[in-house]
Predict the 3D structure of the following.
Amino acid sequence: MPGGYLEMNVYKPLMIHNIAHSITIMTDGCINFRKFLVEGTRPNLKKIKEYVDRSLMLVTALAPVIGYDEASKIAHYAMDNDLTLKAAALKLGFVTEQEFDRVVDPAKMVAPYVATGIEPAKTSDRRVKEQTR
Amino acid sequence: MAESEKNTRRDLISDIRKEMDSLGEVNVPADKLWGAQTQRSLEHFSIGKDLMPREMITAYAILKKAAANANHAGNRLNDQAHRLIVHVCDEILNGQHHDMFPLHVWMTGSGTQFNMNVNEVISNRCCQLAGTPLGSKKPVHPNDHVNMSQSSNDSFPSAMYIAAAVNVTQRLIPAVKALHDAIAAKSSEWTDIVKIGRTHMQDATPITLGQEWSGYSGMLADDLERLDDALKGVFRLALGGTAVGTGINAAPGFAEAAAAEIAKLTRLPFVSAPNKFSVQSAHDALVQLSGTFRTLAVSLYKIGNDIRLMSCGPRAGFAELMIPENEPGSSIMPGKVNPTQAEALTMIAVQVMANDVAVGFGGARRLSRDERLQAADDP
C-alpha cells in the first residue's frame, strides 16, 4: 500500500534517500554532459547537406502547387528509380526546372511557407505519366 | 579472521564508554560523539551500505540552530545552552563532525534515531566545549535542550524539506540552467544550418539544426519552471507540529519563529505550514518534487538519445553531429569513440525515474476508508 498510515508517514528515510540521490546524479550528470559533450559538439556540414540534397520529403513544398497526389508520384518515382527529387519531377514533367528550384527551396521550408503562383507545366510528358499510374 | 586481526579489533572495541538512555546503559566507542540511541540503531539496523543522505546532516544543523534561536528568543532556552548549540551547529555547517552520523537509511520510518543522533552529537560536543564528561548531558541535554519544542515527527520532515529545497536551488537548478544555456548557445550558432527532419525515424521536411536544438533548450526551460513551481510546497515546514501535528510541547509562536529563522539561514522562502496535519501525515510536496525530477529526467533521456543517434557513425551512421572524443572507446577496436556522456546521462534518467517510483510508493497518499479496508485485506 502506498503512503503512510494515520497521523504520520513512515517512509521518510526512503523518500529523502531517493530524492537526494536524484538531485545528486542529475546535477552531476547535467554538468558533465554539458562540459564533455554539448560544448564540444560540432555539426558535420558535409553530411547534413548530403542528406538534404537527397531528401525526397522536400516534395512536400510542391503539394500546395501541384496537389498531394502528383507530388506523391514524384516522390515514389524518385525512390523507385533512384533519382533525385528534381530529376524525377522533371522526368514526370509536372514542373519546370525553374519552377522546381523556386518552390523546392529547403531554406524556405523551415518556417511557415506556402508556395503558390506556378504556371501549369508545359513540357508534360504523357507517356511517362501513364507509366506511373 | 586472523588472530592478530581479532586482537586489533578487541583493542579498538575495548576503548568504550557507557552512555545512558531511557532503556538503560549502552557501550559506545569512546572516540565517537554519538550516544546510546544512535548506538542502538547502528546495531539493530546495520543494513546495507546506504547511509542517511549527507544532505540531511547539514539540513538538521540548520534546523537545530534555528530552533535554538527561536527558543532562546522566547526565553525558553538559557544563554549558555543557546550559545553552545549554535556553536556546534556552525561547526557542523562548516563541515566538521560529519563522520559522527553513521546511521543507515533502512531504519525506523520516522527517522527518529537520526534526529537523536543529531541531538546526541550536539549534546556531547557541547560537553567537550564546556569541559564536562561525554554522556553527562550537561550543560546541554539532547532532548530537553537540543530537541526543545520538537518531535522527530515534525523535525525530520522539516529537515527533509530543507535538504531538498537547498540542494535543488543550489545544485540542481544551476546545473540544469548551465546545460540549458550551453544548448541554447549552440542553437543560436546553428540557425542557418538546414538539415533533414525526421519523424517515425523516417525522412521528413527540413528543419534547421538551431530549431532542433532550441527544442531541447525549450524542454529544459519548461523543466526549470516546473522545479520552481514544485518548490512552493517544499517551502512549507512541519516544524512546530511536534508529535502528531497539534503542537503539544511547542510554545505558541515557536513554529513561525523557527520557520523564519530557517528562511533567514537558507535565504529561501520557508514558512510554517498552515496545516501541520497534512504535512506530517503525508509528504505530497516531496512526491510532487520527485515527479518533477521524473519530468526533467524524461527531457534529459530524450536529449541524450537524440544526440547519440545524430552522432552515430562515423562512417556507417547518421553522422550529422561530431561529438568530443573524450576517451578511447574500445579495448579491442582501435580508434573507436563512443557517445559515453549520452550513455551516462540516459542511465541517470532511468535511475531517477526508478527513484520516483519509490518516492511515490513511500509518499503521500492518506488512506481513505476503503483503502484502509484494502490494506487490512492485504496478507
Q: What stands out?
A: Strands of chain B lie at 16-21, 24-29, 194-199, 202-208, 236-237, 271-272, 321-322.
